Amino acid sequence: MIPNPLRDPRDRRLPRVPEPCALVVFGITGDLARKKLLPAVYDLANRGLLPTNFAMLGFARRDWGDTEFAELARDAARQHARTPWREEVWERLAASVHFVQGSFDDDNAFDELAEALRELEGSHGIGGNAAFYLSIPPSMFPVVLKQMQRTGMAESTPDRWRRVVVEKPFGTDLASSRELNSLVDSVFSADDVFRIDHYLGKETVQNLMALRFANTLFEPVWNGHHVDSVQITMAEDVGIGGRAGFYEKTGAARDVLQNHLLQLLALTAMEEPVEFSAEEIRTEKLKVLRAISLPDDLRTFAVRGQYEQGWLAGQRAHGYRQEEGVDAASTTETYAAVRLGVETRRWAGVPFYLRTGKRLPRRVTEIALVFKRAPHLPFADTDTEELGNNQLVVRVQPDEGVTLKFGSKVPGSVMEVRDVSMDFLYGEQFTESSPEAYERLLLDVLLGDATLFPRNAEVEASWAVIDPLEEFWAGTEPYAYRAGEWGPRAADEMLAAEGRRWRRP
Length: 505
Ligand SMILES: NC(=O)c1ccc[n+]([C@@H]2O[C@H](COP(=O)([O-])OP(=O)(O)OC[C@H]3O[C@@H](n4cnc5c(N)ncnc54)[C@H](OP(=O)(O)O)[C@@H]3O)[C@@H](O)[C@H]2O)c1
Known about the structure:
The chain is of the alpha/beta class. The chain has helices at 31-46, 66-80, 87-94, 107-123, 141-150, 174-187, 203-213, 244-269, 278-290, 298-301, 426-429, 437-447, 456-473, 489-496; strands spanning 21-26, 54-60, 97-101, 130-134, 162-167, 193-196, 227-235, 292-293, 302-308, 310-312, 315-317, 335-342, 352-357, 364-371, 391-397, 401-409, 417-425, 479-482. Strands 7, 8, 9, 12, 13, 14, 15, 16, 17 and 18 form a 10-stranded mixed sheet that branches. Strands 3-2-1-4-5-6 form a 6-stranded parallel sheet, sandwiched between helices. The chain has a two-stranded antiparallel ribbon with strand order 10-11. Helix 5 (141-150) packs parallel to helix 6 (174-187). The structure holds NADP nicotinamide-adenine-dinucleotide phosphate.
């Protein structure tokens, strides 16, 4: 008998709608909540992906009632939502939006929050299910977690689930991430903890798995026999905005390399999971993170930089040390690049070059597999002067898509071979626009699907890569690069030392 897909609960084409539940956001008045979380909640409602019995509770210090909160939420959603504005959707959502005022050290406020959740079970039929989003400064995690433990809010029982969402940074080094993980794990069970790395919510990142494991074309060449090197880039054209306080203590390696870039590396290098499930995918990623090796010569192969005054898009840009709130002698890096190895049969000997920076010429995130040159070219040298290495580039953002670069004959009477590109652009192939990363991830939290969330062991394995770099860099001056340039010269020399060059995306 042919199974009816509409009856098959495993059919992922059916919209997945969570069970009745509440979403509690700590830090609801903050930047992340306004720009990403509230708009994502609206977009989910607009797409019909929230359960009918749903409530959202905001928690912060302001002396607000539900009405003021609903106004903030409306403004935020209107300004930043991805999907078109529909007043009727908002009105339905607004009826489920509540505010609890309080400070994190205020026991009464948490008792009130616990009470509010209990009331919602009756008034909104949320069934006792709740996800708690910690959109708050990391220094506040311990106090909030302890309050949730004290009030019994964190407890999942057979008839209700309770989940927690933790925003990066997950610690500042291996020791502090272990401490944070053990604190979170002492309050919530491991399956109920969702660590957000919003890069994993991006369609193109998920497409990496489709590209590799749904096709026969790429996997046979996805290894050290054919791949010469891998370049993973996350470049930003912006500076640090108003976030000097955060950035001065963090720097590019902790802010981006430790999480986004190592996660992209893990997805690029991992073996095929036994099945497409959270458990199996996370297991394969963890194996890669544990297999990462640092170069012996960190002086050449680990470079950090800091932007100086320069020009970007025709405008003069400040140097990092002139940014508001930054120490005039700051040694915080705004650029980091490193050559890593992955010590597995598939990847031994293949360098993975990772780089990230602020005030670079353009905003782009991409993974590029650079293939080996053909062992022999039956053409005259002059015919292939313009021929580079074949490359497969997965563009995570912007212009999401995949590009294959290969040699082709130039039209004409001579045999000249030059690089050409074959492009797949999401925007051209699909009419539906991609959901925002936070939209996808919030929905997954409410559904209890942890596939796209790194587990604690992954976070710790990533810090084990970063700690020696930070130790090596401590007390050194970062190399300077001008705003609007592709990083310091030392980063180019790093690749040149092995006869390679960075891509200019
Ligand atoms: N912003 C981003 O784009 C971004 C990106 C990635 C990760 N993150 C992470 O997301 C989290 C939130 O970032 P953010 O930029 O939204 O921070 P933020 O703008 O500083 O917001 C902090 C929020 O926490 C609340 N808060 C702080 N101390 C409190 C206390 N003692 N009692 C009660 N409420 C308190 C504030 O409420 P009041 O109104 O009461 O002050 C505010 O709502 C951080 O962990 C950050 O690292 C942010």
